Amino acid sequence: MVRGGRAVLDGLSLDIARGSVTGLLGPSGCGKTTLMRSIVGVQKTAGGRVTVLGRPAGDARLRRRVGYVTQAPSVYSDLTVAENLRYFAAVLGVPRADAERVAAQVGLRGRERDVVGRLSGGQHARVSLAAALLGEPELLVLDEPTVGLDPVLRRELWDLFHRLAGAGATLLISSHVMDEATRCDHLLLMRDGAIIADDTPAALLARTGAREIEQAFLALVEEDQRPDTATGTGTSAGVSGSDRSEPAKEASR
Amino acid sequence: MSVPTSESTSESTSAATAARPPERPAAAPRARASALRTLATAQRVLSQLRHDPRTIGLLIVVPCVLLILLKYVFDAEPRIFDHSGAPLLGIFPLTVMFLVTSVATLRERSSGTLERLLTMPLGKLDLLLGYAFAFGALALVQAAVAFGLTLGPLGLHVSGPTWLLFAVALADGLLGTALGLFVSAFAATEFQAVQFLPAFILPQFLLCGLFTPRGDMQPVLRWISDVMPLSYAVDAMNRLTARPGVDGLVVRDLIVIVGITLVSLALGAVTLRRRTA
C-alpha cells in the first residue's frame, strides 16, 4: 500500500478474531490509522487484500455491519446530540429508539438536547462513538476513542467495549497509550508500518520477560529483525469468522 | 511464512459468493429506503440552518436590502430599476445558494462527516438530493420574500405569470446549489471556497446581460456568455418581465437551467469518493 508517495503497510498480514477486543498499539505515524481505514474500506490501496466478515473491505453489504470512529470526532457540531444520532440512525435505517440507547451507552443521557459544538472535547468524541454504535455493528473500528478522557470515563468505555465483545461484536481499537494494552484481549503492536507483535498481553509479557507492555514493546523493537520489505507490496488483513487458529505474522512476498 | 488465514478465507468466500445470488432487497423497498434517507438528509441540513438563525436572516434580508438600494440609488432614472430588478431576482438565488452550498459541503468534507456517511448505506444521490431539497426550500422562501418586496412596494412590473417566476427562481437556486456542490470539491479550505464566488460567479455576472445586452457584446464574449448558466437565469427573468403568458423561450431557458443543474449534480457525485488516499 502506498500513501503520500511512501510505501506504508508493506507486506503486512494479520487476522482478527470475532468477539474479541483487539488493541492496535504503536507510536503515532506508524500506520495505525491507515490500517484501520483499509479495514473500513475508505483507504485507496495499491495492492493487497483486506477481507472483512467474509467480504472485501468497503463492500456495500458491509456498510451496515461495520462501525468506524475516526480520530477527530465526525459528527455535526452545529446539531444537538439527539439530532445527530437520529440522522445517522435514519441513514442506517435503524429505529429512532436506537439513538437513545447509544446515547445512554456512552454516558450522554440527559445531554441529548445540547448542541454538540458546545460540549467538552470528551463528550464530543463520545457522540462520534455513539453514532458508530447505532444498529449494533458486528465490527467496530475505533481510532483512539479514549484520548483525552478522564480515567473514570475511560474505564467505563473499556467496560462497554468488553460488554459489546461479549455480545459477539469484534472491536479493533487503536491507542498510542501503552497502559491501555492490558485491557485488550489481544494486541497488535505496530511500528513503521509493520506488525511487530500479534499476541495476547500475557503472552507478550511472558515472551519478552517484561513487566509492562511498554517494556515489551521496546524489547520487541530491539529483537525485530524484519527483512528488507522493499520488494513486497502484498498487504492482507482479515477480520474473519472462525476462531483464531494461529496468529498470523508478517508475510512478505 | 505463516498462515495468512485471511487469504484462504477470502478465496473460499469469493467462490461462495459467485455461486449464491447477490443479496439485494427488492427494488420497491430499496427506493423507499433511499427516499427516506434523502428526506432525513434534507431535514438534517434544515436543522443545521435552524440552529444558525443569523445565516437564515442574512440569506433573506441581504437580497432585499440590495434591491431597495438599487431602487433608490437610481431614483432619478426609474428605467434602470425596471431593467435590472428582474435579472437580479434570478441572480440572487443562484449566487447565495452557490455560496451556502459550497461552504456547507466543504464543512461536510473537512469535518469527516462525509467520510462517515460514505461508510454507511447512504447513496451519493441520496446525499445530493437531500441538499438540493433543503436548499431548494430555502431558495423558495428567499424568492417569495424578494418577489413580495420587488413586485409590491418597489413596484416592479412583471407581465408573465407569478408561478413561472417562482419556478425560474427555484431552478436558479437549485442550479446554484448544484454548482456549489461540484465546485466545493476543488476547495481545500473555506477561504478557497469563498474565493470561488468571485472566480466563478463574477465573470458570469459581467457576461450575463445585466450591464450590456448579450447581443451587443464582442462575438467571443457572446459565445462565452452563451455557455454560462447565469445568462439563462437572467434571460428567463427578462423575458418574464417583458411578455405576458408562458413564453416558449422562457421554457427553453428553464430547460437549459435544469439541464446544467443535472450535469453539475452528476459531476458533484463523481467528486464524492468512498475511498480516498
UniProtKB/TrEMBL annotation, chain B:
Location (main, coarse): membrane
Top-rank taxon, per record: Bacteria
Organism name: Actinocrinis puniceicyclus
InterPro entries named in the record: ABC-2_transporter_component (IPR051449), ABC2_TM (IPR013525), ABC2_TM_bact-type (IPR047817), ABC_2_transport (IPR000412)
Keyword field contains Disulfide bond: no
Protein name stated in the entry: Transport permease protein
TM segment ranges: 56-74, 86-106, 127-151, 163-186, 193-212, 254-272
Record carries keyword Disulfide bond: no
Residue ranges annotated for the ABC transmembrane type-2 domain, each copy included: 54-275
Cellular component per GO, a single term: ATP-binding cassette (ABC) transporter complex
Region (Disordered), start-end ranges: 1-30
